[in-house]
């Protein structure tokens, strides 16, 4: 009996001693594993909520995940993205920095910090962050594009083009890269190069209507009138052409020998937008090209009413007056046009009229055209106009058209 009591006592004492050290460690590890599992489930739920725009629920869910397992860089990255969408920039910055502290090799936090800097209008810091993202991941085109766009925002166009041109071969056939190079060339005043790269982007499968819009603008400014007309037809499949593009079409038609069609389109635009001086400028140049001097005079008068500082007003009225034989008034108006001259060739034109009262110029002097004085068959100087880009350069609405 005494022996039985002793055995029971040992059992009781053993039970009171509690779990061993190894047992406690095993229990802690089990709880930690459970915390990680639950945290991952919460993070997945937070991502789903974020993707459908449930930002308030998403931030509460990801905070719960971080509370369970703080050392996961992806959780802080997601928290930073959510806060960025909520326009809580300071809090987003702290979350993204914490993500980088936990995993410096992850490119995404650097990328989103770059976006944050852009919202702070700090393009130089944004560029630095995008470059860090590129260092962490050299294969993601979005990081390259973001860095190039930051160069553009800083006005460093050549650096942007160099960055894109020197990118790896894996980027050279990316339609978005080709489109951005084309866009930069267009903004940099190189429409022919812009047209080439934007066309390549289309050939690589880029069906973005914005690329079509830029392509039409580039082709127009490059003097690729037939191609521009084709691009405008494609644009019409997506939306009705704006007045700017209707004017492009009218001038392209006139430049490719279909002057009546071009005039009719530009005439229609002036009726639809009677207060747009640029539309009257376009119509005036086409009318001049066609020898319709009465319409040229009307366009000049309208332009002078709408925009007295435009040189085209007195230019058109002066040419029309000279054609009607009113030399004195015509010369006075042309001299007025010369005072704020923005056209190559007006000086030569005036010299011709000073030396001869005979109307010797029947072809309009427009931007992108060059006038040369030569000896005419009648022995007096005649302004010979070389049409590099006829009817082009007039109220182009460069660099972007709607």
Description:
The chain has 402 residues and is an all-alpha fold. Helices cover 70% and strands 3% of the residues. It is built from 21 helices and 2 strands. The chain has helices at 2-16, 21-51, 55-68, 73-85, 89-102, 107-119, 123-136, 141-153, 157-165, 169-172, 175-187, 191-203, 209-221, 225-235, 243-255, 259-272, 277-290, 293-306, 312-323, 327-339, 346-355, and strands spanning 370-375, 381-386. The chain has a two-stranded antiparallel ribbon. A hairpin with a 5-residue loop joins strand 1 and strand 2 (381-386). Helix 5 runs antiparallel to helix 6 (107-119). It starts with a helix and ends in a 16-residue tail after the last strand.
Brief account:
This protein is an all-alpha fold and 402 residues long. Helix content is 70%, strand content 3%.
The secondary structure category is mainly alpha
SSE arrangement, N to C: HHHHHHHHHHHHHHHHHHHHHEE
Q: Using the coordinates above, name the CATH class of the domain at 242-402.
A: Mainly Alpha
Count of individual helical segments:
21
> What gap, in angstroms, lies between the N and C termini?
103 Å
CATH fold-level assignment of the domain at 242-402: Serine Threonine Protein Phosphatase 5, Tetratricopeptide repeat
- Hey, roughly how much beta strand do the residues contain? under 5%
Helix share of residues? 55-70%
Low-confidence stretches: 357-402
Average pLDDT for all residues = 80
